[in-house]
Fold this sequence. Notes:
The chain has 2 domains: 10-176, PDZ domain (Pdz3 Domain); 207-319, no CATH class. Helix content is 39%, strand content 15%. It contains 10 helices and 12 strands. The radius of gyration is 21 Å and the shape is globular.
Amino acid sequence: MGxxxxxxxxxxAGAALSTPMVGALANEAEAPVPAxxxxxxxxxxxxxxxxxxxxxxxxxxxxxxERTQLAVGLQLQDMAVFSEPxxxxxxxxxxxxxxxxxxxxxxxxxxxxxxxxxxxALDGDAFGAWPAEERNHWxxxxxxxxxxxxxxxxxxxxxxxxxxxxxxxxxxVPACASRFELGSGHKRALAEGKRVIFGEDFVGFTxxxxxxxxxxxxxxxxxxxxxxxxxxxxxxxxxxVRASEREADxxxxxxxxxxxxxxxxxxxxxERWGPNHSAGIFRARTHEGWDERAVHIAAEIxxxxxxxAPDGSADWKTHFRRELGENGELTPLD
Length: 334
């Protein structure tokens, strides 16, 4: 459909932008914004949940991640991504092609930006000068997010210019190196090394926040523990994949704790999910039975409680037991 975004096109760059509306254009910007079409509004609401939770996970666990980056919590949207750019532009009340898609709650971007706010330049480079195909063109949006990351890596900040207002420079904060994306037209959940991707039809979007956070933490665990690299190096035998899934299950309560959630949410998620979803993203032959997985999660929750610091943090870099060895060996749990 014309409103749909192609799967995986809206990447969450750990990037950021922001700017209050000032001057003569403020009155125009404060005029009523056209309501988003229902389908687009639903997609945006799920994307916002994903980015909010993802932000808590990657910033809360930054002290313990091997790979970190500076982030500002802003995701952009480019009308060129859509099959009907003019219709979306009109529906959102935009003059140009670039606007804010989401700002993660509590992020630097959230202090200044809001969803669908039009932006026109990045570090003084006008988006309008960037070439793009007329429709279904995702490369320009990827370029924008990559440019934000590069700017943050270079000097710790990024400057974004809104349509209405002066340019604002946002300072990045440490975050685990992973992006979050919502794709249209599917219900899968997966991690591919640098990104965590959920389909808009994923059943977890109907779960309470802390249980949705648990499954996001599971997928994020695969990236933080570099499972894809390990499996590419040492092979995807069933026992290897199962061990990687078990590690991701067991890291869930650690990540949740550092993101401000109860570690028990990992177990509640598995108990809700398991009985009715024995296949799907958790495929039977590469995953243990949900009840076995729940046992491992419950044991890990107790370990988290044992090693939790006075400030409430859970140092999984020190206390999490790896099963996948550096040389390809598997280390059984006691």
